[in-house]
Write a structure and sequence with these properties.
The complex is a heterodimer. Helices cover 32% and strands 26% of the residues of chain A. Chain A is of the alpha/beta class. The longest helix of chain A is centred in the middle third of the chain and has 17 residues. Chain B is 77% helix and 0% strand. Classes of the chains: A alpha/beta, B mainly alpha. At the A-B interface, helix 10, helix 11 and strand 18 of A face helix 1, helix 9, helix 10 and helix 14 of B.
Chain lengths: 513, 353
């Protein structure tokens, strides 16, 4: 007997992927993967970057065709040639990057690409009514008349979910939906997930955050190197086990952070104002002090001025007002070179755009900032022997896995490029380090390594500003945690007192004394 | 294995551009009623078949290579120099002015001074777009093209006015050309009875120098870093606008030198049409040489040969000279197009993998 959703669409009882193989030139992205999801459950798909999660889901959504294997829906084999076929079969996908038109309203976005019930005339009222109904039913609060550009990321995500539901999706694939949310918004989203599951929807939740996966999923499947490393019911598995399944070896989730005697103030930021790209002050009066031997974590939902602050501290973005003092030298509006010369190292947010040159070799990238100094060059001539010697040392010190020093960086994995950048920046023995999203998109193994190096640097007396959207990372490494909200520091708390709840409230703009 | 084959294919693609262009050219020759085999035979024999042809080829390759070296530096620095033509003209004008103005000075001093004048004039002509780019972000493609127009008009004015050969005024013919350069600054002929001059050697030596400059010095390293990724270079403390301007200035300097050497080695006086398209063909030669200074050497010889051989072909099979331009244009299109395809294939492979 067929069961129906409240929308009147039949419930998709079971989706089963069997022996899925997908090859790309030189890579086996999915290697005989079995995966299934049933109505009423949240099935988490966990894995590191490059483990094959997105590839697997893109095949389900008709974006790629599998080389081998079958996709069965309610026992019937399906062949999806395009996302439209998948949508027709009751599958919806919420992408990491939202597919909304900013200049249109919420209802207009939802009606976009659908047939109107009144032929060529729009029936937005009807759409609006349905949007409100869906919002009510699943706890997805939205204003249907608002323009998308006016909405925060969390709201935009809710619209994407409503859009999929409106189109009759019974099975929803959510690709890293929590990456852009505050902890409270994540909680709300999970409430919605539960309601959808109890209604009879099936949900696939792609993530690499262990806590969230354990908080919401009924079953968890881990992909590693394109293979299914195991599917477990939530009750029978722990965080440590999951991490181990992802990496393939035991992992440290908690670091040892011995007390360090605070050194002198190395980085002093006074009432800093920095314009954002839209001409308004993205950094609106920030003051911070960081001492030697201290890691100050800067948390916040992305887009609250962290990026602009980091760029100003690198000397890449003009300071409108206020001062930056590095090691007692004022460097406000100084060039990046001046910052470097006063002892600052910088790990930029976008490693391929700002941190490394794709076409340059490992060796060439390693000398990017210091090529003009000894031992890398003498009298404007590069000294290749010294470069190879020195770079080889850094490469092995920092565990950069590369076929050779002459390999172009674009052929390395994200984690290895990040270790290369870290090696380059730390081998300079900086007294101040600005690390912007140092482990974003980096696999667990490399993250762990990077974290340990940052902690070692702390023991050496470096003052570190760690800017990250990953709260676990911030809490694991920082001595103090500052939260940025709408261009200001809304509060600074000692790491001991920084519970996720408290940080979450601060990230949402609530000042907690 | 498939990966290796892909790589080989992509590397060979630009080289295939030449035979493919010739194939299309052959069809046009057929349409014009000429025998393509005969035509191409005449072309190759004309360009490379005897001492006279070969030396002419090398004479034409010399300015192509010099301009191409400047193009290599500019393109490696991420800036596009289309101003070679104007830079050749001002380089030639400056060298001529110095040579004629100080003609009683000994050659040992005057000859290098003329070259230096050409280099500096070209550098200045490249420097204007360079500084505009660095200071105000003015698009260098537009500004270098406009500097070409200015150079042509400057040359027209000078060759009809202050720099005109006094003999032309006496004779009343008033052809727009300068006085003959003093013999002391004429470049030595390498093969008697031909035009091949020592400028060719200078060009080859400079190709090696540019190679060393780009890949062995810190300045060259910075230019390449800026060209490949401005943001990363800037984060690393490299002064991006300065090196962009420098690449344009150096590009101009090489084209200016090409102008000076053309005057001192071939024409022995400044005249209209001295640049005769070398400023543009040099870009193509550099692209064909993969923007590598050493790769530009054979590429320049090939394009020099095409220019010379085309002349011979025209006479041998009686086709309109426009066909020659068409053929050269086809080579350019196919070379540039094939590079785009190679890059796109490589990119697609990487992003998929």
């Amino acid at each position: 007997m067929t069961r129906y959703l409240s929308s009147g669409r039949p419930i998709l009882e079971e989706m089963r992927m069997q022996g899925i193989v997908k090859r790309f030139p030189g890579v086996l992205a999915n290697d005989h993967v079995d995966f299934d999801v049933r109505t009423g459950e949240v099935h988490a798909l966990l894995g590191e970057n490059g483990a094959g999660k997105s590839t697997l889901m893109r095949q389900l959504y008709g974006m790629y065709k599998p080389d081998e294997g079958k996709i069965l829906i309610d026992g019937k084999e399906m062949h999806f040639n395009s996302p439209q076929d998948a949508i027709n079969a009751g599958i919806g996908m919420i992408h990491q990057h939202f597919m909304l038109v900013p200049g249109l309203t919420v209802v207009e976005n939802i009606a976009l690409g659908l047939k109107s019930s009144r032929g060529p005339v729009l029936d937005l009222d009807r759409v609006e009514k349905r949007v409100l109904e869906l919002g009510e039913q699943y706890g997805l609060k939205v204003d249907p008349r608002a323009y998308v550009w006016q909405l925060a990321v969390g709201e935009q995500q809710r619209i994407e979910i409503i859009k999929a539901l409106y189109r009759g999706a019974s099975l929803l694939v959510l690709d890293e939906p929590t990456a852009v949310l505050t902890p409270q918004e994540v909680d709300d989203l999970f409430v919605t997930f539960k309601r959808m599951a109890s209604e009879g929807h099936a949900l696939i939740f792609i993530s690499h955050k262990l806590n969230e996966v354990l908080a919401i999923s009924n079953r968890i499947t881990v992909l590693r190197d394109g293979k299914n490393a195991g599917t477990r019911p939530n009750e029978n598995v722990t965080r440590v086990e999951l991490a181990q399944m992802m990496v393939g070896r035991p992992v440290i989730l908690q670091y040892n952070r011995p007390p360090v005697e605070a050194g002198p103030v190395r980085l002093r930021i006074q009432d800093l104002h920095v314009r954002g790209d839209r001409g308004k002050d993205a950094v609106d009066g920030v003051s911070l002090e960081i001492c030697g031997g201290e890691i100050l974590g800067l948390a916040g939902v992305s887009g609250n001025g962290q990026r602009e602050l980091a760029e100003a501290l690198a000397g890449m973005r003009p300071v409108r007002q206020g001062r930056i003092i590095l090691n007692d030298k004022e460097v406000t509006n100084g060039s990046p070179l001046q910052h470097i010369n006063v002892g600052q190292s910088y790990i930029p947010e976008e490693r391929m755009k700002e941190g490394a040159i794709r076409e340059f070799s490992v060796a060439d990238n390693m000398i990017l900032a210091d090529h003009g100094k000894k031992p890398y060059s003498r009298h404007t001539f590069l000294d290749f022997k010294a470069i190879r010697e020195q770079v080889g040392k850094i490469v092995s010190d920092f565990n950069v896995k590369t076929p050779s020093l002459d390999t172009p960086v674009k052929n390395l994995s994200g984690g290895n490029i990040q270790k290369l950048i870290l090696g380059r920046e730390l081998s300079r023995c900086p007294s101040v380090l600005i690390a912007s999203q140092p482990t974003r998109g980096v696999d667990i193994g490399a993250s762990e390594y990077i974290h340990q190096r940052l902690l070692e640097q702390r023991l050496c007396g470096t003052a570190t500003l760690l800017i990250s959207e990953d709260l676990d990372e911030i809490r694991a490494l920082s001595d103090r945690i500052a939260v940025m909200y709408e261009g200001r520091i809304i509060g600074i708390v000692d790491s001991k007192d920084a519970t996720p709840d408290r940080l979450g409230l601060m990230m949402a703009g609530v000042e907690t004394a | 294995m498939k990966r290796v084959l892909n790589k080989v294919f992509e590397a060979l693609l630009p080289l295939l551009a030449v035979p493919v262009a010739f194939l299309i050219g052959a069809m046009m020759l057929l349409a014009l009623g000429a025998n393509p085999l005969e035509a191409y035979g005449a072309m190759i024999a004309g360009a490379f078949g005897d001492v006279s042809g070969l030396t002419q080829t090398l004479v034409k390759a010399t300015p192509l290579l010099l301009v191409g070296l400047g193009v290599c530096i500019a393109f490696r620095g991420g800036v596009i120099n289309i101003g070679g033509e104007g830079q050749i003209i001002v380089g030639a004008l400056a060298a001529t002015a110095v040579a004629v103005g100080f003609k009683e000075w000994p050659g040992l001093v005057l000859l290098p001074l003329c070259m230096l004048a050409g280099v500096l004039a070209g550098a200045m002509w490249g420097g204007v777009p360079g500084i505009l780019k660095a200071r105000l972000g003015v698009n260098e493609i537009l500004s270098t093209v406009m500097m070409n127009a200015i150079a042509v008009q400057l040359s027209n004015y000078l060759l009809r006015g202050p720099m005109i050969d006094p003999k032309e005024i006496e004779a009343g013919t008033r052809i727009a050309q300068s006085a003959l350069l003093p013999r002391s600054v004429w470049l030595a002929r390498l093969v008697p009875q031909t035009l091949l001059h020592s400028g060719a050697i200078i060009a080859v030596v400079l190709a090696v120098v540019v190679f060393i400059f780009l890949w062995r010095t810190t300045i060259g390293y910075r230019i390449r870093a800026v060209g490949l990724n401005r943001d990363a270079a800037k984060y690393a403390g490299i002064n991006v606008p300065f090196y962009q301007a420098l690449s344009l200035i150096l590009g101009g300097a090489f084209a200016g030198l090409a102008g000076a050497i053309e005057v001192m080695g071939v024409q022995h006086r400044m005249m209209e049409n001295l640049a005769s398209g070398y400023g543009f063909s040099g870009i193509v030669a550099a692209l064909f040489g993969s923007l590598h200074p050493l790769g530009s050497i054979p590429a320049s010889v090939l394009f020099g040969g095409l220019l010379v051989g085309a002349d011979k072909m025209q006479r041998a099979v009686q086709v309109p000279s426009a066909l020659i331009d068409t053929l050269l244009g086809l080579v350019v299109l196919l070379v540039v197009g094939s590079q785009v395809i190679s890059r796109r294939r490589a990119h697609r492979r990487e992003t998929r993998g």
